[in-house]
Design brief:
Region (Disordered): 45-85
Strand order of the largest sheet: 3-2-5-6
Number of strands: 8
Number of helices: 22
Domain RNA polymerase sigma factor 54 DNA-binding: 334-491
GO biological process, one term: DNA-templated transcription initiation
Helix content: 40-55%
Family: Belongs to the sigma-54 factor family.
Largest sheet: 4 strands, mixed
Biased composition (Basic and acidic residues): 66-85
């Protein structure tokens, strides 16, 4: 093989996205709330952008000086600065639109007093409605510890133990006590650590700082319980068998009857296996629907974008006029030209988002009409490619349009992605969504004989009788996703036939 070095010219065809296309895709992917934030950011960076805030709760006063979404002139809808020409025609159009203009050039973008007042009110409302941070597990335990009269060395170790506890893990102590002591600890130090741990475990919630499930439940036991001895035996020696519902093995090892074991197990269910979980912060998103689904006079579903809070943007007439001012410097003109392009791209992207999101949402609704009318069991298989073909866009456009978007429907506020589900075919060739199969699976398990519950193989057979051909591994996968125990764990031994 001959190797050589040299220069070579080649022709390559590559595809690059224009900045305008990239911005359009970014704007399309934003939900309404994020779009409002993006507009505020753009307005702070581009003084040529002005907005008309639309409050749907206030009647239209017919202010002719402000453009509206439906009455903007043709000149305002399109303004693209051509850097290769002098743009005389564009500038003449802009000049004709100007009524009264300021006599001086103010380089700073000043917001109106009303707008600043409205923004201040919105920020005040956000602060007033903000949810206060709940007390953490560590703070709750430290407050209790501070009220106790204990030695300083024990208190320091107790604080160290508390610092390792995590509410997301249920409040268990996962760090060995020896690791919480300095190097070269003595037996006396370990004894102090054990005392500190006992103090922490005496705090509320009961069972906190346990090293495993058995210790957690034992700390919560009270000798006043009716079956204290039996509960202790099961917790100490048969906790895994209880979890797997192996009651006959427990009965054989302990001599307890099946009925007694089930009674004790029911009592154990009253204990808390994760005492620290109550302090886990749960994030509940404040969902704002981007699309409203309504019925028209003919009873048909029609979508409407809930973007009344998205302001109408237009390019400042003052800066349009400034381009015609002979006193404007070359740098000034260049700055305004660039900002005009940026502003027009943003306006066009928002309009394109509105159009695309409306078409995609309407196509989804038309496909899933039975789901909206009849409920989850009537949902039909739907892929994004089907909507893309129907609307006439690329599948990635559909993906961006439905990403993090919500629709207000007669069945609640649902994410647009909820309408896209996979499926299979029945023996008759009819498409069936996986959601429908899961509902049927739940129905079969709810109605099964608990003395002899269906195995996964048996569930496959029962689904096939209903016209749904599904593999056993698929049944197992969905059963686990639905948090349904195995057939052995679902078995009620008190109902089983005795040999």
């Amino acid at each position: 093989m001959r190797m050589s070095m040299g220069m070579q010219a080649r022709q390559l065809q590559t595809q690059k996205l224009a900045p305008k296309m990239i911005q359009s895709m970014e704007i399309l992917q934003l939900p309404t709330v994020a779009l409002q934030e993006r507009i505020e950011q753009e307005m702070s960076e581009n003084p040529l952008l002005e907005q008309q805030d639309v409050d749907p709760s206030q009647p239209d006063e017919g202010d002719d000086e402000l453009p509206t979404k439906d009455t903007r002139s043709e000149n305002e809808k399109e303004l693209v600065v051509d850097n290769d020409h002098d743009n005389k025609e564009d500038f003449e159009r802009l000049q004709n639109m100007v009524s009264e203009l300021p006599n001086t050039f103010d380089e700073s973008f000043k917001r109106s007093a009303n707008r600043m007042s409205d923004e201040a009110d919105r920020r005040h409302d956000l602060m007033a409605n903000a949810v206060s941070r709940p007390e953490s597990l560590n703070d709750f335990l430290l407050h209790q510890l501070a009220e106790m009269d204990i030695d300083d060395d024990v208190e320091q170790l107790a604080e160290r133990i508390i610092s390792t506890l995590d509410a997301r893990d249920g409040g268990y102590l996962r760090t060995p006590l020896a690791d919480l002591l300095p190097a070269g600890q003595s037996d006396a130090d370990l004894e102090v650590a054990e005392r500190a741990l006992a103090i922490v475990q005496s705090l509320e919630p009961t069972g906190i700082a346990a090293r495993d499930l058995s210790e957690c439940l034992m700390v919560q036991l009270n000798r006043s319980f009716p079956h204290y001895e039996e509960m202790s035996t099961l917790i100490r020696n048969h906790i895994a068998d209880l979890a797997e519902n192996r009651l006959p093995q427990i009965a054989k090892a302990t001599g307890f009857s099946i009925d007694l074991i089930q009674t004790v197990r029911d009592e154990l269910h009253g204990l808390n296996p994760k005492p620290g979980a109550a302090f886990m912060e749960t994030y509940v998103p404040n969902v704002t629907p981007d699309i409203i689904l309504e019925r028209d006079d003919d009873g048909e579903f029609k979508v409407r974008l809930d973007d009344d809070r998205v302001p109408t943007l237009f390019i400042s007439e003052y800066y349009r006029r400034r381009l015609q001012d002979p006193k404007a410097t070359a740098e000034e003109r260049e700055f305004i030209k660039n900002k005009v392009n940026s502003a027009q791209w943003l306006i066009d992207s928002i309009e394109q988002r509105r159009s695309t999101l409306t078409k995609v949402s309407q196509a989804i609704v038309e496909h899933q009409k039975r789901f909206l009318d009849e409920g989850p069991e009537a949902i039909e298989p739907l892929k994004m490619q089907q909507i893309a073909d129907k609307v006439g866009v690329h599948v990635t456009t559909v993906s961006r349009a439905v990403d993090d978007k919500w629709m207000q429907t007669p069945r609640g506020i649902l994410p647009l992605k909820r309408f896209f589900v996979g499926g299979t075919q029945t023996e008759d060739g009819e498409d069936v969504a996986w959601d429908t199969i899961r509902l049927k699976l739940q129905e079969l398990i709810d109605k099964e004989d608990k003395s002899d519950p269906y195995s996964d193989e048996k569930l496959v057979e029962e689904l096939k009788k209903a016209g749904m051909t599904v593999a056993r591994r698929t049944v197992t996968k969905y059963r686990k996703k639905m948090a349904i125990p195995s057939s052995r764990q679902r078995r009620d031994w008190s109902l089983s036939k005795k040999d």
